Amino acid sequence: MNDITIEAAQQALVRLLAIADRLDARNRQAAQDIEAAVSAMRQGVERLDRSGDQFAQQALQRVSADVQQSIAQGVDQAAGRLQCQLQQSAHSAQLAAKAMLEQRKGLSAARRALVWSGTLALLVGVLLAVAGAAWVAHRSMQDVAQAHFSDDILRATRSGAITRCGDALCARVGKHPKRYDKAGDYVLLDE
Hints:
With 191 residues, the chain is mainly alpha-helical. It has helices at 2-77, 80-159, and strands at residues 162-165, 168-171. Helix 1 packs antiparallel against helix 2 (80-159).
């Protein structure tokens, strides 16, 4: 009967080790997936930054070229007052282009913040997964230790080292009992 209990405990321990191995493999895969996602996000942000810079520069050049052309035509077609209005329009267009450039910079900063927030969220998720796996492994080890203690009690009961004496439990300690701790509070059972 003891062989069956030990064998059952050994099988339970093997199952727990297999579960721990699977959890470890899943954690490693999740970490690799997160690294790949972070790398893809960074590449996307870099492409967006380059495209945004090119767009802003092209828009600024085009607006400047259009404004200069408009001013030249206005000078040729009209006198003083019309030229003043064209210059005001050019100034407004340049301010609008500068505002677009500032907005693009703000959007780039927001994108970077979003990437970092996403990375942080993924990292927190990985940490939670690892902590959960560690807790499951710790709890499993406690269950295994409890099973061993129960086996020891069963073995002591079968051998007669622990039995009932009326309504109380008795322990066989022998004629010269051996003490266990420094204070002598515990006595080792005869088996």
